[in-house]
Amino acid sequence: MQTTATKDFLQGIEMLWQESKNRELLFVGLMKKDCLGQLRKHCHRGHISSLLFQNDIRWIYDSFKSNIIDFTLGNHPPNTLNKKITESLVAEAGDFQAVMNLLKSTEFHIIQSYQEVLQLVDYEEEVRGILLDHLGLFTQLRDNLVNFQTSYSVVIPRNSHQSEQMIQA
User: Fold this and answer.
1) How many domains would you assign to the chain?
2) Nearest 5°: phi and psi at 139?
3) Residue 100: pLDDT band with limits 50, 70, 90
4) Which residue range is the domain that position 12 belongs to?
5) Would the pLDDT of 114 be above 50?
6) CA-CA-CA-CA torsion for 47, 12, 82, 97, nearest 10 degrees?
7) 71 or 137, higher pLDDT
8) Using CA atoms, how far apart are residues 27 and 36, in angstroms rounded to an integer?
9) Is residue 116 very low, low, confident or very high in pLDDT (cuts 50, 70, 90)?
10) Helices 80-92, 4-30: inter-axial angle, 10-degree rounding
């Protein structure tokens, strides 16, 4: 029989799985856009990390699940509502800044999700290490996005009027 703490932990892992799938869909959708420029590299890294982290999440889930009660994450029914929402968000992100904001909010959200699940893990050092590694990479990706957006908005003016104001200043 599973304890309540284990069930809560498994629900958290299921949430991370779904977040990772949504993140994968987001990056795949964004890589199809023309307005990415240098963000295409970030989207590619994000897509690959989503795929790799799904393998880790599946391993963690499988090591804790009860074969009688729980299902396999790979056979998890797709959340079509989240897929439609993700597709809608990608379609609405028409310019570079909108894409940046979408990426930053996605990274912030997944960092929060990992922090929530990490609060449920205190007894399994290997699992904690894997989740902390994921969290470290997400934090690094978020920081890179923030730095990139800052340098983009400072270096590249949006129109010639802004160029004149920057030169006069």
Assistant:
1) 1
2) -65, -40
3) confident
4) 4-168
5) yes
6) -50
7) 137
8) 11
9) very high
10) 40
What amino acid is encoded at 69 in this protein? I
Asked if residue 65 lies in contact with residue 10, where contact means CB atoms within 8 angstroms, the answer is yes
The pLDDT of residue 9 is above 70: yes
The pLDDT value recorded for residue 76 is 53
For the chain, what's the residue count? Answer: 169
CATH code, domain with 89? 1.20.1260.10
**Mean pLDDT computed over every residue of the chain:** 76
- CA torsion sign, 61 to 137 to 102 to 42? negative
Per the listing, tokens 């006069």 go with 168
Residue type, 61: Y
Q: Is 87 left (phi over 0), alpha (psi -120 to 50) or beta?
A: alpha
Residue written as token pair 């129109």: 159
